Each structure stands twice: as C-alpha cells, then as structure tokens.
C-alpha cells in the first residue's frame, strides 16, 4: 500500500476529454419524439378539420329555410261552401286548404285559374304542410274565414334545394325535380321579395316528417333528453355505489378479480349486444312498450355503467391514503371517511367520467335499432313511455332519405349533435377545473 | 345526494311498471326500408287528417326483421303492421301461427320498379338480362363449358355499357330487392345466355342448378350494398364505370346525378312498370294483424286510408314519390278483401 494513487481528476489544470454520455444522441431522440408527436397531432387535427369542414359546409344551409310570403284569401267558398261550420265543425278540419295557398300563389304570379297544368306545377312549389298550417289557423280562429291575411308558407323541399343552388339547373329539365317554369316563377317571386330564406326554427322544433322542408329534430331532442336523464339518474348512483363497495369494502379475492375483469369486458362489448339484451328483457319479458325512450334509457344505462364504474374506481384510487388515514385516525368510521372525505375529493373525476359516459350514450344508435327507436315518429312524446327517437337515429334516418333537401338536413342535425357534445365535454372540463385538487 | 338519486331511480322504475299496463293508442309498424318512405307519407297524412288519432310509428329494419317482429304474437306489446317488399314466406306464416298470430290480412299497395343506373356522365345504356348475367355471374359458359367468370370490362360484353372495368353495386342479401334482382335478371339472363341448359346437364338437382344460375361472382367486381341507396349513389359517384341498382323512387329524386339504363329496350317509368312492359318490378305489401283491428285505435282507419285512391291511386302523393299504382281493378279488389276481413 505504499503506492500512492493520484486520481487524474484531482490534478489541477489537466483537462481530460469529457466522457461520452450520449448527450447528442439523446437530444436527437428527444427531438425526433417531439416531431412524431407533432406529426400525430397535426394528422389528427387535419382529419378533424376535414370532418368539421365537410359537415359544416354541407349543413349550414339547413338552418335557413325558403318561405313564400303570400296574401292568402281564406275564401268561404273553398273552406265551407255550404256554411255548415256551426253545426258540423268537422268541415273545417277536412277542407281543401292547399287550394287556398295555390290560389294565393297564382294571384301573385298572375297565372289563370283554368290553366290546369300550370296550376298543378304551382301546387308543387308549396309544401304539403300548408294544409295543416292553414287549417290550424282557421280552427284556432274561425272568424278569419272570408278575410285575406299575409301568411308565410313553406316552399316545397325541391324549390328550397333549387333556391339554395343544390340542384344542378344546367341539366335538361326532364332530369331534375324542378321544371324551368318553376325556376322562372321562383326567381320572379324572389325578385318581388315574396320568396326568401328565413331562419329555420322548424329544424329544432318539428317532429319527423316525410317532407324535408317540415322535418325537424324536435322529437329526437326530447327522446335524447329523456334518455340522458334516465341514464344519469340510474347509472350515476348505481355506478358510484358499486365502485365504492368494490374499491373500499370488498375483500380482494378471486371473486372480486373476476368481477373486475367482467366490468372491463362489458365496457368493450359492442353496443348492439345491449340492444339485444334490452329487447329480450325489457320488451319481451317485462312488457315495456316498443320505441319508448324509457327502454332506450335503460339499455343505455347498462351500456354506460361499466364506463362510470371504471372512471369512479380510478378517481377513488387517486385519493391519497393519507386522507383516509387521517380521517380514521381522528376517529371517523370507514363510512364517514368515505362519504365525508374520499368521495368529495374524488367527485371531479367521477363527474368527468359520467359526462364522458353520457356523451358516449348520446351518440349511440345501434342498441336503439332493436328496441324500435329507429323509427319515424311525428308526435311529440309527453312521457318517457311514448314512442320517440334519438338524435343520432334521426341523423341516420335522414342520411337514408332520397330527397336532395335531406342531405343538408343530415349535416345540420350532425351540427346540432356536435354542439350538444361540445357543451357536455366543456362542462366536464370546467367541473374538473373547478373542483380538482392537487396533492 | 346519492340517497336522493336512488329514490329518484326507484321512482322511474316504478313508473315503468305502472305504465306498462296502460293501453297503447298509437299504431306500431315495422319492416321494409323500401316501403318505409311510402308508409311515412301515409302515416304523416293520416295523423294530419284524422286529428283524433296519433301519427303511427314506422320503424325500418328490413322486410325479414319486420315480419319476425310481427310474428312474435298478439297483444299490445307486439307490432300491428309489417311492411314488406316481398310476399310473406310459408315458414314465416307458420312461425306466426305458432306464436298465435293466426289471422293475417295481406294488403298489396302497388309496385316498385328496380332500375339500373350509372353516373350521369355516361352515355345511353341498354341492358339485357343476359349481359348482366355474363358480367356478374360467378361462372359463365364459354365454348360450352362452365368456367369462372373471365370478363373484366363492360365492353367485353356489350359496347353500350359504360367504358371500363366491370363494377356493379347490387343490394345485399338482407334486402328484398336482391331476390327480385336474382329472379328477374340473373335467372332470366342465365336462361337467355344459354347457360341454364349447360348447368342443368352438369347438375341434376334442380334446386342446386337454380342456385348456380343466380350465384354472383365473388372476385370483388360485384359489391353487395347492405346499406341504403344513398350508399350506392356514393359508390357510383366515386366509380364512374360502376352500375348501381336503385328503386324507381330513389332514381326519380336523383335524376340529375344518375343515368338510367333501359332494360330489354324499355325505359323505366311509372307507365312502363304499371303496364308490365318494364321487366324488373315487384309488388309491395303490408300485413295486418286482424286480432288488433278494433283494439288498437285507428288501425282499421289507417289501412282504409292507405288503400284509398287518395293515397295509392295514379294521382296520389305516393305515386308522386315513385310508387307505381296497381291497376284500378286490383286496388278495388284489395279494398274489398280488407273490408271482407279476408285472411291468409
């Protein structure tokens, strides 16, 4: 041990080459990883943009609707020629109201009453919905019979499409739904200011209709609202209670492991399977009505439960054990610890999970097919027991329609659905921001 | 808070069970997606005309699915009417009987034409069943022998067809339209192309021989469309040499985007179909549960309204949409049969 070892590093003034610790390589790897990340992100953003662009560019026109403002004469000769309305109110319901509208249009355009062919073409320019529109006016106030009133009537779907430039007018007129004559009338009316685009309130409030100009998502909105309410009211308490038990009380053994595997599995089961289950259990066995939003809500609850349970368990797990230990140490019971301390701290996570689960359920159509909710429903549901549809179902039904005017409406309905989803997801973020705690 | 919500949940559930006992006051219809647009128009007009009844609920899902629901039994939990683009099968009638649906009334509403069309950029097209058979069959006869379909371009078969590789978008097997296509085009073309005799000589079993005649090639040239006509339209816009199968009503609504082909020299239109000149058409039906008449409010009135000339006549909203009205005598017969309560 006589030899003295002098460590090179301690020699003052001597500069040794720096040990290669791969710094350059590591920086390069990091830069590459960042580039991959940005590439992936921009790839996703491009597709999101393309999707939004295609939906919005096709759909924004759906929020406008062509209407014709005409001076309609509520002629007694047409509505009630024999003057029976006092004794037989049925007359007012069955009168030939479209003729009133057609005559008003003929007057505005100066078309002779006896020109049958032209009269027929005129009739096709107005929506069939004018019958109920004018009838409702007369039934509400029979005193307008014999008077002339200015009414804004819906233009027919094809005229609406043509006015918005969605029908190719350069092809020969045999190859399109609107004739040259009708286009001429349309332009004449537009110049006179009688025919114009208005904001389309109908798309929000009307029920389903075979006439594109009168079709709306009203019934679907109510149906979706009922279903979301049922899903929220059922799945939140059940899901939270189940996760609290599993996370805090249940013994950890084979059996609870099996349950956990099953819950994770259920979250990945194709949603149509829940539809089959709903058909078998709720409709065939329990005898609940078809097409009702109640059954839809039950089915979607089953579908959402696993998502909520998984999110809640994760949120409960994230609460630090020190909180539990402190509460227990101060003499709180286990129940008190959970409900007074753990659950409130886990709430933001639970609510976020629930809203994401709800948003998922809101966009679901497959399970609704089998329980009869993919249907044409014109009447507004007053209770969840009445037949109704859902927003995504309405989009699907409109996408399959033959009329050109339904193309924009399909995209319009998608925009409405997207708005709802955005509101829900922003709500989830705000909730998290508001209540989130960091340890 | 959780306790409160649990109570609310229990409330909802109890409403459910109490409500199940209340009577249904709305007609429930399910079935064919071809009949759906017509049924929707009638249902909507019915709801507007008869203000004392609610608008019927019309589900889509296909003829087979509709008839299956229809045959589930009798009672308020089951549907009242099944729309169908083909006549009900024997096996379906038996399934109905087994479930207690013994009295079924058949109502024929009119005819639907099946048209062949390509993108509007194509020239005039003339289709013969034998050409389509040659283009689409799995095996065709070349030099007296059955071989796997060798044709690649439409021009190999008929110069008036679109120029370029063969591509056809035909309805998938869940559609009623497929059956009509097989029967009226493939089987017919098989006979006319002379393949039927060769197949008969090779296969003795008549059923198998018939199946061979209508077998569609599976090398990606003929594409089954399981969705709706909108999907076929999108496929055709993407592939200009593709030929698609549409319903007459859909074609009439999209004439500016499609070029229709004549079949055996006949242009499809309501006139040529009702006169029987245009060969590819089929009757449309709906089936009514007799046991539900008088129980479900408005059911009888709905059927009478549907069969009236105001709805299915030659100058009616349905004809306007594309339905081919049945001849006068047939419509009269349908009304008489329903009024007399004739069952199957």
UniProtKB/TrEMBL annotation, chain A:
Domain ABC transmembrane type-1, chain residue ranges per copy: 221-427
Pfam families: BPD_transp_1, DUF3333
Family: Belongs to the binding-protein-dependent transport system permease family. CysTW subfamily.
NCBIfam families per UniProt: 3a0107s02c (TIGR00974)
Entries under InterPro entries matching the protein: DUF3333 (IPR024573), MetI-like (IPR000515), MetI-like_sf (IPR035906), Phosphate_PstA (IPR005672)
Highest taxon listed in the record's lineage: Bacteria
Record keywords, A-Z: Cell membrane, Membrane, Transmembrane, Transmembrane helix, Transport
Source organism (scientific name): Rhizobium lemnae
Transmembrane segments: 33-56, 225-246, 266-288, 294-316, 337-362, 412-431
Record's protein name: Phosphate transport system permease protein PstA
Topology in the lipid bilayer: Multi-pass membrane protein
Compartments, as annotated in UniProt: Cell inner membrane; Cell membrane
Keyword Transport: yes
Keyword Transmembrane: yes
Coiled coil: none
Main location: membrane
Gene that produces this protein: pstA
TrEMBL record, chain B:
Protein name: Substrate-binding domain-containing protein
SUPFAM superfamilies found in the cross-reference section: Periplasmic binding protein-like II
Coiled-coil spans in chain: none
Signal sequence bounds: 1-23
Annotated keywords: Signal
PBP domain boundaries: 19-309
Lineage: Bacteria, Pseudomonadati, Pseudomonadota, Alphaproteobacteria, Hyphomicrobiales
């Amino acid at each position: 041990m006589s030899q003295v070892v002098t460590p090179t590093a301690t020699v003052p003034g001597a500069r040794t080459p720096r040990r290669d610790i791969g710094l350059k390589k590591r920086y390069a790897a990091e830069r590459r990883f960042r580039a991959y990340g940005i590439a992936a992100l921009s790839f996703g953003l491009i597709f999101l943009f393309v999707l939004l662009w295609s939906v919005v560019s096709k759909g924004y026109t759906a929020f406008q609707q062509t209407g014709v403002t005409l001076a309609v004469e509520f002629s007694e000769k047409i509505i009630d020629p024999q003057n029976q309305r006092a004794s037989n109110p049925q007359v007012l319901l069955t009168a030939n109201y479209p003729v009133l509208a057609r005559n008003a249009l003929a007057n505005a355009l100066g078309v002779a009453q006896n020109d049958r062919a032209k009269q027929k073409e005129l009739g096709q320019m107005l929506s069939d919905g004018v019958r109920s529109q004018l009838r409702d006016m007369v039934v509400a106030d029979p005193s307008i019979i014999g008077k002339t009133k200015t009414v804004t009537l819906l233009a027919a779907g094809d005229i609406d499409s043509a006015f918005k430039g969605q029908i190719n007018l350069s092809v020969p007129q045999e190859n399109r739904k609107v004739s040259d004559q009708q286009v001429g009338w349309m332009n004449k009316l537009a110049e006179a200011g009688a025919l114009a685009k208005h904001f389309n309130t109908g798309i929000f409030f009307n029920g389903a209709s075979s006439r594109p100009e009168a079709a709306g998502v009203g019934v679907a909105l109510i149906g979706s609202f009922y279903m979301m309410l049922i899903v929220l009211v059922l799945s939140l308490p059940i899901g939270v209670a189940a996760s609290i038990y599993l996370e805090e009380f249940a013994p950890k053994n084979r059996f609870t492991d099996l349950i956990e595997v099953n819950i994770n599995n259920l979250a990945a089961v194709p949603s149509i399977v829940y539809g089959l289950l709903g058909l078998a259990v709720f409709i065939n066995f329990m005898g609940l009505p078809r097409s009702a939003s109640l059954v839809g809500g039950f089915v979607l609850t089953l579908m959402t439960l696993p998502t909520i349970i998984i999110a809640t368990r994760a949120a409960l797990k994230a609460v630090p054990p020190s909180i539990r230990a402190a509460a227990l140490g101060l003499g709180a019971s286990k129940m008190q610890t959970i409900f007074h301390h753990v659950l409130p701290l886990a709430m933001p996570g639970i609510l976020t999970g629930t809203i994401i689960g709800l948003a998922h359920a809101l966009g679901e159509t497959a399970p609704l097919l089998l329980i009869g909710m993919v249907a044409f429903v014109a009447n507004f549901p007053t209770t969840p027991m009445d037949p109704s549809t859902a927003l995504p179902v309405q989009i699907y039904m409109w996408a399959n329609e033959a009329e050109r005017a339904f193309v924009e409406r399909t995209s319009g309905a998608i925009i409405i659905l997207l708005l709802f989803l955005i509101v829900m997801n922003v709500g989830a973020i705000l909730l998290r921001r508001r209540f989130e705690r960091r340890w | 808070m959780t306790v409160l919500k649990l109570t609310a949940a229990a409330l909802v559930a109890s409403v459910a069970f109490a409500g199940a006992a209340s009577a249904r006051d709305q007609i429930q219809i399910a079935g064919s997606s071809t009949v759906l647009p017509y049924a929707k128009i009638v249902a909507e007009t019915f709801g507007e005309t008869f203000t004392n009844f609610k608008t019927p609920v019309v589900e889509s899902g296909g003829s087979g699915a509709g008839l299956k629901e229809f045959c589930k039994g009798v009672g308020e939990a089951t549907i009242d009417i099944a729309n169908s683009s083909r006549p009900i099968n024997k096996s379906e009638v038996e399934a109905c009987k087994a479930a207690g649906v013994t009295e079924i009334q058949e109502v024929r509403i009119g005819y639907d034409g099946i048209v062949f069309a390509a993108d509007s950029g194509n020239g005039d097209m003339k289709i013969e069943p034998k050409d389509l058979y040659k283009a689409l069959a799995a095996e065709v006869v070349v030099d007296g022998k059955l071989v796997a379909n060798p044709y690649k371009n439409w021009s190999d078969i008929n110069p008036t067809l679109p120029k370029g590789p063969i591509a056809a978008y035909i309805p998938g097997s869940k559609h009623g339209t497929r059956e009509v296509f097989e029967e009226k085009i493939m089987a017919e073309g098989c006979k006319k192309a002379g393949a039927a005799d060769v197949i008969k000589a090779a296969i003795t079993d008549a059923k198998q021989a018939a199946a061979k005649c209508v077998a569609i090639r599976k090398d990606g040239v003929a594409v089954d469309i399981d969705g709706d006509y909108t999907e076929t339209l999108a496929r055709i816009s993407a592939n200009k040499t593709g030929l698609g199968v549409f319903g007459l009503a859909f074609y009439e609504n999209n004439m500016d985007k499609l070029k229709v082909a004549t079949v055996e020299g006949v242009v499809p239109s309501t006139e040529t179909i009702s006169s029987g000149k245009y060969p590819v058409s089929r009757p449309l039906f709906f089936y009514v549960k007799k046991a539900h008449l008088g129980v479900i409010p408005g059911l009888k009135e709905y059927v009478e309204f549907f069969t009236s000339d105001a709805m299915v006549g030659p100058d009616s909203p349905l004809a306007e949409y594309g339905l081919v009205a049945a001849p006068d005598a047939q419509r009269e017969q349908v009304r008489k049969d329903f009024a007399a309560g004739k069952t199957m």
